[in-house]
TrEMBL record:
Assigned keywords, A-Z: Membrane, Transmembrane, Transmembrane helix
Renumbered residue ranges of the record's region Disordered: 1-22
Biased composition (Polar residues): 1-12
Top-level taxon of origin: Bacteria
Protein known as: Uncharacterized protein
InterPro entries: ATPase_put
A Pfam short name: ATPase_gene1
Transmembrane regions: 25-45, 51-72
Organism: Pilimelia columellifera subsp. columellifera
């Protein structure tokens, strides 16, 4: 009967990796999180040293580069 079969998880059919939509959200989380955290650190350095936005720009670039590195590392494994 249909009620006797175990239900399948909402993940991939083999159960080893999450569905593609979850991977997409994880990528977006890394990118936005990296920019927010390191951009925020750069903003605080700007306020502390009064550098006129240079540290914020550097923080945003470093955050994006770090996030891309993590995404590539996660997707290749």
């Amino acid at each position: 009967m249909a009620g006797d079969q175990p239900s399948q998880s909402s993940g991939a059919p083999n159960g080893d990796e999450p569905p593609r939509s979850d991977q997409g959200w994880a990528v977006m989380g890394y990118l936005i999180g990296g920019m927010a955290v390191w951009g925020g650190v750069g903003y605080l350095v700007d306020r502390w040293l009064d550098t006129g936005g240079i540290a914020t720009a550097i923080g945003l670039v470093l955050g994006m580069a770090g996030a891309i590195y993590l995404v590539v590392r996660r997707m290749s494994a």
